[in-house]
Specification:
Layout: H1 12-22, E1 33-39, E2 50-53, E3 58-63, E4 68-73, E5 78-83, E6 89-95, E7 100-105, E8 110-115, E9 121-126, E10 134-137, E11 142-147, E12 150-155, E13 160-166, E14 171-176, E15 182-187, E16 192-197, E17 202-208, E18 213-221, E19 226-233, E20 235-241, E21 247-252, E22 257-263, E23 268-273, E24 277-285, E25 288-296, E26 303-307, E27 312-317, E28 326-331
Antiparallel strand pairs: 1-28, 2-3, 3-4, 4-5, 6-7, 7-8, 8-9, 10-11, 11-12, 12-13, 14-15, 15-16, 16-17, 18-19, 19-20, 20-21, 22-23, 23-24, 24-25, 26-27, 27-28
């Protein structure tokens, strides 16, 4: 069974314990239930990241392949607005307290800013190249944008650039501590995690993965001081101690992971993989993890969004074969 590579154990009682630890949930209790498929008629090719407006039930979609930003009304299941003319949109961020949407574009290196009611442009910030992942620090009221080989710091009150933090390579996914003072950044080209002090905006240390690389998606379990990293070479889930940077666990996964989420309420991990699966893992304790399920999806469906407030998981499915683009909505059964 994937994720539990070990020598054969010949004692029956020990084998029983081993099988239980590798399969946390029985097959008849699926961790995700597909409840709806919402067609995206004007979207083709690659779909990048997603964000949500919880109050108005709107899903924001970076439609990379069609150079557009799509607004999906989740209540009606229809696209209610499209912004075209972007250049490879990759990241999208909705900041409710400022009622603005930020869309980053890899082709131009630009972060375009829109009013969340009218969708009119209200500003933009130009970076050197490849504007990508974007996050909001609710505590400090600052936005972070990964681009080129740096992380930019933006003040959303004025939409002005505060600081640029130089890195050793392009930042992929990154996570910001809500109670601590650090930011963890995946540098996939160097199998590195850069650790930034969010008060001084300086890189304070660097960790290198013990095995593997291509570290793209990342999630943070702040309570247990664990950093969850999806690697592509080889496909794996690596767990690090955020106090030491040391690896505490590693499990095999499906290939081409691009989004990864930690479900603190259920102690679960969801990873969307372009190979055509959602990999679900259980956190037994801070140092031990087990595969729960491999949920078949569609090849290249690798971006997603976990929304704990709605108990839902949204998967972006691009055009594949005769299938058209869509958002798959998965319900997470209540425990």
């Amino acid at each position: 069974m994937r994720g539990c590579e070990m020598k054969k154990i010949y004692f029956t009682t020990v084998m029983s314990l081993f099988m239980f630890s590798c399969r946390a949930d029985p097959p008849e209790n699926p961790p995700l239930l597909l409840t709806e498929e919402i067609i995206l008629p004007h979207v083709s090719e690659r779909i990048d990241h997603l964000d949500i407006d919880l109050q108005k039930q709107r899903l924001f979609i970076a439609a990379f392949g069609t150079d557009a930003f799509e607004v999906l009304d989740l209540r009606s299941g229809t696209i209610i607005h499209s912004i075209t003319g972007l250049n490879q949109p990759q990241g999208v961020l909705f900041v409710p307290e400022f009622n603005k949407i930020y869309v980053t574009s890899g082709g131009t290196g630009e972060c375009n800013i829109f009013d969340a009611n009218s969708f009119n442009p209200v500003g933009s910030i130009k970076f050197s190249s490849d504007a990508d992942n974007i996050r909001y620090d609710e505590t400090a009221k600052l936005i972070y944008v990964g681009y080129a080989a740096a992380l930019a710091v933006i003040n959303p009150a004025t939409d002005s650039l505060v600081r640029e933090i130089e890195l050793d390579g392009h930042p992929e996914s990154f996570q910001i501590q809500s109670r601590g003072r650090r930011i963890f950044v995946n540098i996939a080209s160097d199998s590195q995690i850069a650790v930034i002090d969010k008060r001084t905006h300086q890189v304070i240390t660097r960790w290198w993965l013990e095995s593997g690389g291509g570290n793209f998606p990342m999630a943070l379990d702040e309570n247990n001081h664990r950093l969850l990293i999806g690697c592509r070479t080889p496909p794996s889930l690596t767990v690090l101690d955020t106090e030491t940077g040391k690896q505490v666990s590693k499990l095999d996964t499906d290939a081409d992971a691009d989004d990864l989420f930690y479900d603190a309420a259920r102690k679960r991990i969801y990873m969307s993989c372009g190979e055509g699966f959602i990999d679900v893992f259980a956190q037994i304790d801070a140092d031990h993890y087990a595969e729960v399920e491999r949920i078949p999806t569609t090849p290249r469906a690798r971006t997603s969004l976990f929304v704990p407030e709605l108990n839902r998981f949204y998967l972006a499915v691009p055009v594949w074969g005769k299938d058209i683009a869509k958002i798959q909505v998965y319900e997470i059964p209540r425990q």
